[in-house]
C-alpha cells in the first residue's frame, strides 16, 4: 500500500466510486460519511491525506471539524469546482481543490505529490524518522530496531534515511544513486543492491517482520 487515506463523502455512491478507484491504485482508503464517523476515524491510525467529496456547505462543515490548521493535507473533490467555492475552500485550509471529473491518474499524482511535500516539511520539524519498531534519531544519527541499537556505516545510514523518508513509496535505484551517492556511479552499477543487502542483514535478519522489500525491476520500499 502507498499510504492511508480518509475519504469523507457527502454522497455514499460517489464515495464508494472514489474509494474503489483509489484502492485500485494502491491506497488504503477509509470511507467516512459524517462528522461523527470522522471523529472516530481520526482517533485510530493517522491518515496521510484527507479527501472531502461534496458540495461547499458539506466541505466547510468538515473543514471546520478538522480545525484551523489540519495535521494532514486536504484535497477537496467537487462535482463542479466554481471559482468562489474554490477560494472559500482554500480559506478554510484546503491544500488542493479539484473537479469531480478528474482522472484517477491525475488524482493519484496529486496525492503522491502532497504526501511527499508534507513528509519533507515534517522531516524538517522532527528529530527522528520511524516506522513500526524501526527508529532513526537524526541528531545523534543512531538507529534502533525494537529498542536495539543498530550500527550502520555512513552510507548505510544515508540509504536507510532515504527509504524512511518515503515509507510506503517505491524508491527507484536511480533516485537512490542521485541522493545517496550523488551521481558518482553509472546507472549499470549494483551498489544500491549491495548496500540493501547490508541493511537487510542488520535491520531484518532474524526478525519475523521484514521491513525492507524489493520491487522487481524498479527499486525498494519500506512497508
Automatic annotation (TrEMBL):
GO CC terms: cytosol; protein-DNA complex
Keyword Phosphoprotein on entry: yes
A GO molecular-function descriptor: transcription cis-regulatory region binding
Gene Ontology process terms (BP): regulation of DNA-templated transcription
Record flagged with keyword DNA-binding: yes
Signal sequence residues: none
Keywords for the protein's UniProt record, in alphabetical order: DNA-binding, Phosphoprotein, Transcription, Transcription regulation, Two-component regulatory system
DNA-binding feature ranges: 126-223
Domain of life assignment: Bacteria
Domain OmpR/PhoB-type: residue ranges: 126-223
UniProt name for this protein: DNA-binding response regulator
Species assigned in the record: Paenibacillus lutimineralis
Amino acid at each position: 500500500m502507498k499510504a492511508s487515506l480518509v475519504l469523507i463523502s457527502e454522497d455514499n455512491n460517489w464515495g464508494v466510486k472514489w474509494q474503489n478507484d483509489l484502492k485500485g491504485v494502491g491506497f488504503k482508503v477509509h470511507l467516512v460519511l459524517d462528522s461523527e464517523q470522522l471523529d472516530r476515524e481520526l482517533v485510530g491510525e493517522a491518515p496521510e491525506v484527507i479527501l472531502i467529496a461534496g458540495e461547499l456547505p458539506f466541505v466547510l462543515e468538515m473543514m471546520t471539524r478538522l480545525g484551523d490548521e489540519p495535521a494532514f493535507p486536504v484535497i477537496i473533490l467537487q462535482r463542479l469546482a466554481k471559482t468562489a467555492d474554490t477560494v472559500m475552500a482554500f480559506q478554510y485550509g484546503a491544500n488542493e481543490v479539484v473537479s469531480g471529473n478528474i482522472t484517477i491518474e491525475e488524482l493519484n499524482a496529486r496525492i503522491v505529490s502532497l504526501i511527499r511535500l508534507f513528509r519533507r516539511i515534517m522531516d524538517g520539524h522532527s528529530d527522528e524518522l520511524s516506522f513500526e519498531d524501526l527508529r532513526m534519531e537524526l541528531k545523534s544519527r543512531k538507529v534502533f530496531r525494537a529498542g536495539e541499537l543498530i550500527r550502520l556505516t555512513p552510507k548505510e545510514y544515508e540509504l536507510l534515511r532515504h527509504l524512511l523518508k518515503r515509507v510506503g513509496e517505491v524508491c527507484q535505484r536511480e533516485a537512490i544513486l542521485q541522493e545517496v551517492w550523488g551521481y558518482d556511479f553509472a546507472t549499470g552499477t549494483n551498489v544500491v543492491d549491495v548496500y540493501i543487502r547490508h541493511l537487510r542483514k542488520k535491520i531484518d535478519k532474524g526478525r519475523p517482520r521484514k521491513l525492507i522489500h524489493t520491487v522487481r525491476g524498479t527499486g525498494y520500499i519500506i512497508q
